Amino acid sequence: MAFKKAYIEISGYCNAKCRWCVTHNDRHIKTQKDFLSTYDFNRILDRLTGLGAIDSSTLIGLHSWGEPALNKDFPRITGILSKNKFPWWYSTNASVFPNIQECDFSSLTSLLISLPGFSQSSYDKIHGFNFDNIKKNIENYVTFFSGAKPVQIAYHVYQFNIQEIHYAHEYASRLKLNLMPYYAYFNNYDMTIKYLNYKLSSEDIYDATTQLILFYVRELISKQPRKYACTQFSSLVVDDFGNVLQCCGIHRTQNYYSIGSVFDLTLDEIIEKREKSTACAPCLNSGAVYWGANPFMFRFK
User: Fold this and answer.
1) What pLDDT does 251 receive?
2) Which residues contact 246 (CB under 8 A, 6 or more apart)?
3) Of 139, 163, 216, nearest to 185 (Cα)?
């Protein structure tokens, strides 16, 4: 049976500087990063289809850890997906605006834009981008789609940007966009497990307790069902080198990252290797997986 979702990393790099994301914390570590070419993208699609890992019902995401719009072949990749009638979507930090006139969005299901606040001050603390440029790019998307495709904003709620949520809400309402505020968390497998096991460094604890909103976490994970089934097993993640990943939560600088090349593995091997990985027990036992699958949403009155 095909996976419900498949994430294909078309950019091995993210230009944002998020304090709690492993892609920022591990920038000092030299790792392979690449932008997926149209040739290799086609090869990966053909391989996954041939394995039965994906079919026309599989929702394709053009992202994992990287910023997809940085890939110069982004327009041609959208054309490949739409030509083959794959439903697809992507998440972006809106720091760059792709050559949208050359894109084929006919089978695009949605676009998700991530915001770490609604001021230059908040952007200076997290993404590090020019906030006016971000708004300009969002408005360019809205103008281009003209309501034909759903554009949503994921607003990452930190202690320092709570007071900005109503401004973001007004902005989204004016543009007729859906605003989804949720409490930011550790986007880092190792750091999350250390925090939940009371082993996080004093420096990280101090920063976390002054930036993140964590009051609900222990209560949330106490509700994890005894035989909780990780939702990651219904999804597949392939990186910019064609590696099949254990899940979307483990970065290339961390242990257990890849189980092998998509061109070497059978579908049965993919399923078996992922299910037997020693990465799962610490994640499941600490409650990290349940926390990641159930982000705490900020509710408007």
Assistant:
1) 84
2) 256, 257, 258, 259, 274, 277, 279
3) 216
Q: Could you tell me the residue ranges of all domains in the chain?
A: 5-187+236-272
Q: Give which of 262, 253, 225, 247 is closest to 5, Cα–Cα.
A: 247
Pairing of strands 258-261, 235-238: unpaired
CATH match for 5-187+236-272 among 3.10.20.310, 3.40.190.10, 3.40.50.920, 3.20.20.70: 3.20.20.70
Give the global pTM. 0.92
Q: Spell out a b/e string for 285-301, using b for 16 or more CB atoms within 10 Å of the CB, else e.
A: ebbbbbbbeebbeeeee
Residue 146 neighbours by CB under 8 Å, 6+ apart: none
Structure tokens at 55: 């079919």
Q: What is the mean pLDDT of each run of 10 residues along the chain (301 residues)?
A: 94 91 64 85 97 96 94 96 95 95 95 97 95 97 92 96 96 95 92 95 95 95 92 93 92 87 97 94 94 81 57
